[in-house]
Write a structure and sequence with these properties.
The complex is a heterodimer of chains A (418) and B (227).
Chain A: H1 2-11, H2 13-45, E1 53-57, H3 61-68, E2 79-80, H4 81-88, E3 93-100, E4 104-105, E5 108-113, H5 116-120, E6 122-123, E7 127-128, E8 131-134, E9 142-145, H6 147-153, E10 160-161, E11 180-186, E12 197-200, H7 201-207, E13 211-212, E14 215-216, H8 218-222, E15 238-239, E16 241-246, H9 252-260, E17 267-270, H10 272-282, H11 284-315, H12 317-325, H13 330-371, H14 382-413
Parallel strand pairs in A: 5-12, 9-11
Antiparallel strand pairs in A: 1-16, 1-17, 2-15, 3-5, 3-16, 4-5, 6-7, 8-11, 9-12, 10-11, 13-14
Chain B: E1 2-11, E2 21-29, E3 33-37, H1 44-51, E4 59-64, E5 67-68, H2 74-84, E6 85-88, H3 100-110, H4 112-118, H5 121-131, H6 147-159, E7 165-169, H7 177-189, E8 195-200, E9 211-214, H8 215-218
Classes of the chains: A alpha+beta (418), B alpha/beta (227).
Chain lengths: 418, 227
Amino acid sequence: MLKLAWRSLLYRRLSVGLGVLSVALSILMLIGVERLREATHDGFENTVSGADLIVGARTGSVELLLYSVFRIGNATNNIGWDSYLALSRDPAVAWSIPLSLGDSHRGYPVLATSAAYFTRYQYGNHLPLHFSSGVPFAHAHDAVLGATVAHRLGYHLGDHIVLTHGSGEGAVYQHSDQPFTVTGILAPTGTPVDNTVHISLEGMTAIHMGWSNGSPSLLATTGILAQTDESAIPPPETITAFLVGLKSKAATFRYQRKVNQYSDEPLMAILPGVALSELWNLMHVAEEALRVISVFVIVIGLLGVLTALVTGLNERRREMAILRAIGLCAHSLFALMIGEALALVLAGIVCGMALLYGLQAGFQTTLQQTYGLSLPLAPPGAGEWLLLLATLVAGALIGVLPAWRAYRQSLHDGLEPH
Amino acid sequence: MALIELLDIEFRWPGNASPTLSIPQFSLQSGVHTFLHGPSGSGKSTLLSLLTGIQAPQRGSLRILGEDLSRMRAPRRDRFRADHIGYVFQQFNLLPYLSVLDNVMLPCQVSALRRQRAGDARAAAGALLETLGMQAHLHTPASRLSVGMQQRVAVARALIGRPELLIADEPTSALDADMRQRFVELLLANTHETTVLLVSHDHLLAQYFPCSLALGAINLPAEVPHA
């Protein structure tokens, strides 16, 4: 009987094939979107992965995360360099990376930091930063570009760039007296690092020498200050935030308390993972919307199968009558039709998953490099099995309609289809 | 011995005011080839759907091989049909996606009894097709056969596994005059051990049958609506 059903399906291969294709594509969409969403989520939660704490002036934790990691918005207050020195010398601290923001270059944020940034900063699944070309900054007027900045603006090693004081629409003053030389370009990470121009803290101090109240003094515009001997550049007075790596995770909360209770100025320390989750939850609606769309796509795919089966019924009245004549009961015809719907949906699921794994294998490297999304070729997870199972059950349910019609039809026609 | 025995049968289609069939008594002897003449609209299809167990009468007893079909539930009637009745349609008898041989073997897939009686189903189907002159087309897809050939394959399928009863509903109406005679002769020559009931509106076929009946003579609805 199975062989018979198979031959019958083969005989109608065009409509059957289209039905399978519609299910396959919707499964590809459903599971593909689900996997992308999870990878995006994981990638997002791992925008900063090495640091145990982010320290900044007291504000909201999401705000601190937004300006220190995503370079969105501005810090309302800075941290004194003294406080940074005091806190980073705590015996629990393994390393720290100072971050100083505020300037920009053609819309891209400029981050002044220390050399530790290139060795200690981690993203994703504890991936360090890599240079696609060049080396870290060694002098005050060296700059290291994120992959996107270099790519979009077409910069190469040795190019000179001029930074803008401030960012956004109000940024009108150019640090044109002190151009920077590109010494390194970072490999893509899929994180805000790609959009950042990195300079040293000394560089940041140098370009702001002689400035007061946000505008350059006469001395600063002459270019004389640009000639300053590097050894004479003092440490910055303030920084925006700093990342801390602790020797032991066990010290995290003790150190966090110490920062929060720091008496010289109001500071706060946040756990990057926790703050990232909070931020991700703000995008909950978009996530739900994606899910709803995926479910609708599945419904449409299943309707494709339903169409194929229902429109086929009329042409199959003869077939049904013959099967009835050789003694098949109406219940068997019902089962046959349900089985057919199930087989189509199952075939669609298998094809869709095969297609998904094929695409994943093909684009794995690109996705990782360009968007920082890691999509390993893993077997379906519990949630995915559940989705596939739900689709199969839905397939059996939509099979009820053509099966019921075939059943009624065969009872009505008997051996005489009209 | 009577193979088919109808007593006091009444059948009414749902929604109809008067019964389509009302048969006080009708029987068919085992092994006899019977021609049943009935013009269209005389309740011929209805009678066949009762005899094959597709429908059950609302009243009376309908015995085939001693078993009362009117007392069976639908799935049992279906099994009874699979085991004991071969059926030949007017035309379009075959599943177009199967070969001739696979079409003939179909009843052996549904009925264990016929599978057992046929022994080697493939050999039995081959032998039947050979006596019907179809040996050259065993593996041809059914959709490629002429109408005459299709009807002969249908006979082979109705006979495989030696069912006791063969019912043919207008099996010659799609054939031209020459083919009709040859088909009926071939059918009757291969069914010496089988009870055959051939229903047709074509009077000329009666000459080939030892026994011939008019449906109008056995179906006597109490209130006859004037046509």
